[in-house]
Amino acid sequence: MTLRLFLLILVSVSLSALAQLALKLGTNAAAPGRTAGIGGEVGGLIQSPMVLVGLGLYGVGALLWLFVLGRAPLSLAYPFVGIGFILTMLAGALCLNESLSAARIGGTLLIAIGCVLVARSA
């Protein structure tokens, strides 16, 4: 794997984690349930700037991921998606003050170790 391809994988996975954070912030700001019915809730979410940012980040990340998949074996590239779990957990803790239990940290580290093992096996 080239350094360029590795960096593209990291950027794509990072964009997905940032997208999760933006979507969470957007759904909190839109405060679903304030409007009547599911149509009102969907309308509120669609108008939330952070939801739109999150969807945009997903789109850019997906385009980069397509580029990665065209240049790397799926069995090598896909395990790196597990890094997104780590980044998303950290974003939740740092930006949203979500608690980190020993079980959550341990499980996330197991995912990371699995990513390393799979990547080294190629």
Automatic annotation (TrEMBL):
Print the organism lineage: Bacteria, Pseudomonadati, Pseudomonadota, Alphaproteobacteria, Sphingomonadales
Q: Does the keyword Transmembrane helix apply?
A: yes
Xref: Gene3D superfamilies: 1.10.3730.20
Where does the record locate the signal sequence feature? 1-19
The molecule here is called EamA domain-containing protein
Give the record's keywords alphabetically.
Cell membrane, Membrane, Signal, Transmembrane, Transmembrane helix
**How is it placed in the membrane, per its record?**
Multi-pass membrane protein
What the entry lists under SUPFAM superfamilies is as follows:
Multidrug resistance efflux transporter EmrE
Which GO terms fall under molecular function for this chain's record? transmembrane transporter activity
Location comes to: Cell membrane
Q: Which organism is it from?
A: Sphingobium ummariense RL-3
Entry GO terms, CC: plasma membrane
Task: From the record, give the transmembrane residue ranges.
Answer: 50-69, 76-94, 100-119
